[in-house]
Amino acid sequence: MRYANRNALILGAGKSGEAAANWVTAAGGRAAVVDEAWQGARLAELGAQGIRCLRATRERLPDGAFDLVVTSPSIAAGHPWLETARARGLHVISELELGADAWRGDLIAVTGSKGKSSVVKAVASALRLAGREACEAGNYGTPLCARALERADRGAGATAVVEASSFQLEQTQGFAPRLAAILNIQADHLDRHGSLEAYAAAKGRIFEGQRGPACRAFLPPGLSAGAVPEGVAVERFGPEAACAWRYVDGAVLHGGARIPVTGYFANAVLGPAAALAAAMLDGCGLTGEEIAAGFAAFEPLPHRMERVGTRGGVAYVDDSKGTSLAATRAALRIVGRGARLIAGGRLKERDLAFLLPDLAACAVKAYLIGEAEGPLYEAWHGTVPCVRCGELARAFHAAEREARPGETVLLSPGCASFDQFPNMAARGELFRRLFEGLPPALR
């Protein structure tokens, strides 16, 4: 095995780092994990698995006879550890690339700014419904190294449907999914990447390892195919007539075929995601009938335009996963007129006026929370009535009091959650508890 005699240093002690260490060890190599902020409980967890934990400062890696460095998504491209590793002449790869090398089976991957988790789930669940072995992996929740370890003693018949984030793709060099796609590019994670151009370049690395006609690359219209290697087929998806895979009025059109789309994806905003899912499922050999059945059976992920209930003729929708203004724009367009928008948190972008046309068209009022409430108020209050609420509970109750039948109380923050919550799921769960009249125990 390729890693039988490797001595790997794993950067980052999260799920990805743990999975990488376990894979290297299982393959007969040696692994040590280093992290900037060790906690006693985490040290105990990894130690119980036989994983060696080392201490280091941000500026200095531990010495040792390492011949491989595996980096977790939390380690940014300019981190001093990576600079030190390369200065020592060490081979650096990402956990995603390590997992792809270890995976025995078909590998397909999706990246993008918003909606990629739903596409990954739609593809994997449709494959399973059609009788195929398939699993979700990567940024979706379970690292690819962990999936590879699960199947280490089994055959190569399964398909891994990988969600690849820009953080994971930064350090990839030979990641080579047979089918690869960029769903969309919208301003996001600029606090890490610095510019939209750098962010898009990281996303484009999903195609870098593809080779030859067996591989297919899927792109939305208008996005350059410059990152796709020569010889790899490029197919476009979206609503435009020139797209090979086109969503129109509740169906995906491809050639002379019409694939019905029902349920979650059956609207103009999510239709391009349906077109991509259909294209990738076709690439896996599913028929139009099997693809349509997958759409009909699809159950949306939590906190993504999730209707938590209706009371007094007012709908309550949890889109806590909407952590960019582009995601909030999509949510407003799905809801349409009559949205009472709860927005705010920790900003990740600078162009706050981006949302003004959609606020004017769809929002009755904006209820602002978190660190961003001041900047959002200054940017938006001339277009839509705004109120600074500070916390989600106060915003929820204000919107609840003022909402009229036919309107929607929409949590789509357009911001990260980390100023007031441990993650976006906790934010969404609090929204649900407030609707159900339960105490805000998740805060």
Description:
With 443 residues, this protein is an alpha/beta fold. It has three domains: 7-89, NAD(P)-binding Rossmann-like Domain (Rossmann fold, 3-Layer(aba) Sandwich), CATH 3.40.50.720; 97-297, 3-Layer(aba) Sandwich (UDP-N-acetylmuramoyl-L-alanine:D-glutamate ligase); 306-436, Protein-Tyrosine Phosphatase, Chain A, CATH 3.90.190. The chain is 33% helix and 22% strand. The chain has helices at 15-26, 40-48, 80-87, 95-102, 116-129, 144-150, 166-169, 190-193, 196-204, 271-283, 288-297, 325-335, 356-362, 373-380, 392-402, 424-436, and strands at residues 7-11, 30-34, 52-54, 68-71, 91-94, 106-111, 134-138, 159-163, 179-182, 216-219, 233-238, 245-248, 251-254, 257-260, 306-311, 314-318, 339-344, 363-369, 386-390, 408-411. The strands form three sheets. It has a nine-stranded mixed beta sheet with strand order 7-8-6-9-10-11-12-13-14. The chain has a six-stranded mixed beta sheet with strand order 15-16-20-17-18-19, with helices on both faces. A five-stranded parallel beta sheet has the order 3-2-1-4-5, with helices on both faces. The longest helix has 14 residues, at 116-129. The N and C termini lie far apart (47 Å).
Summarize the structure in short.
The chain contains 16 helices and 20 strands. With 443 residues, it is an alpha/beta fold. It folds into 3 domains: 83 residues, 3-Layer(aba) Sandwich (Rossmann fold); 201 residues, Mur-like, catalytic domain (UDP-N-acetylmuramoyl-L-alanine:D-glutamate ligase); 131 residues, Protein-Tyrosine Phosphatase, Chain A, CATH 3.90.190.20.
